[in-house]
Amino acid sequence: MKNKNTVYIVSVVISLVISLWGIFGSESFGKVAQSLMSWVTVNTGWLYLLSMLVFVIFALAIAFSKYGSIKLGSDDSKPEFKTISWFGMLFGAGMGIGLVFYGIAEPISHFVSPMAGIQPGSEEAARFAMRASFVHWGVHPWAGYSIVGLGLAYIQFRKGKPGLISSLFIPLIGEERASGGFGKLIDIFAVIATIAGVATSLGMGTMQINSGLNYLFKIPNNVTSWLIIIVIITVIYTWTAVSGIDKGINLISNLNLILAFSCMLIAVLVGPKVMMADTFVGTTGDYINQFFKDSLNINPFGDNAWMQGWRIFYWAWWIAWAPFVGTFIARISKGRTVREFIVGVTLAPAIGSLIWFSIFGSMGLNLRSVFGIEKLTQLSGQPETALFEVFSKYPFGIVLSIITIVLLCTFFITSANSATFVLSMFSQNGDLNPSKKKMLVWGILQALIAFALMISGGLKALQTASIAAAFPFIFIMLAICVSIIKAFREERK
Hints:
The protein is globular, with a radius of gyration of 21 Å. It is mainly alpha-helical. It has a single domain, classed as Amino acid/polyamine transporter I, CATH 1.20.1740. Helix 2 (26-63) crosses helix 17 and helix 21 crosses helix 22. The chain starts with 5 loop residues before the first helix and ends with a helix. It is built from 23 helices and no strands. It is a multi-pass membrane protein. This is BCCT family transporter. The chain crosses the membrane at residues 7-25, 45-64, 84-105, 139-157, 185-203, 223-242, 249-270, 312-329, 341-359, 394-427, 439-459, 465-488.
């Protein structure tokens, strides 16, 4: 029993120490975190870029290879969830809050402060702003998720092994070593990366919910309000996680889809329709045309500040999310083929994200003559408020703002309850139905860490946490790619 609890005990202790340090020693915590972030982004940015491109190539190559017909489960197994519910859970767990937080704010930020060599506020800056957003929210993150999810779905449902990240190393190092000390170290890394990645999103969601309530109802935007919001939503997401996937998580995921679609539909009806369509078509062309250049775009002789602040942050954030989202995707994907899994996980949600940015990014950039460059620059520094400011300039802006606040809450709940479920699996030897007590503990700890990061440096501290926690996981994910190939070759033999 003691052996089985090692990952749980060590992970909880580390998470508690981080939480308490962030809450009671916020200044020193912020300084250490910032130093760590600077070192990682400056010295290893090239590794993040290269690794994420490898994940994209690997995922698509596997999907359309001879291994694409392998079933993630027994040969006669069928998918557990309907495709629409599957997409809803994928989308809610994998993106959620981030789309709402950055949908308007990110294109505006790139427009007023683009990469070195591009004139801020120019037509070139506008095209760059949309293409950069497409790169960050397109195929790359989902390819990373699909690698972890594919390996876990295969090892769990076809080979009957525990649903742990360490189980993915069985083809490489054997079952005995994968379940020993080395395997437990990998599972602890997975837990810490998950906690940091999810806490980043929860923190951003809390800040934006508070900003929306402040903008609409003058509710104070301060630490007390953050705490109240986190406590209320923690109760809800912990309850839905304890209720299980079939009831709580599936129900909230379906609600997410309805709210997100409603929000997009209203935005299209009141927004610049032609600009939205032109943006989607034109930027998709730019995105495909410059895919490899953007994937590896780092300057060895000049200024990389934009790359370090945006793309490297995003790649680290997605890698930090990979163990959690990958594990959750695996849990809901039994019975699908490898090809169906990768195409469903990599392409379908990515297209949804590109449509989202085409709609909301166009709404923001369409107001460049109304706001002016100074106001847009101010909004880029307040991403949690930008969305509500932009909505206020359109008909039914108040309706859009209210739907968005509700959507933030449901996305918040979906991401957090999925993560609570996965963290409990990781710390209970991969059990597909972990104990409610562990879910309660992880539900509370996620909220604590998010709050600790927020009060120790706001958005910057949240970003820093994800970058630092993701670094060791790059090497784990690269090893998973090798392990999957080895396992599939054995399968074919």
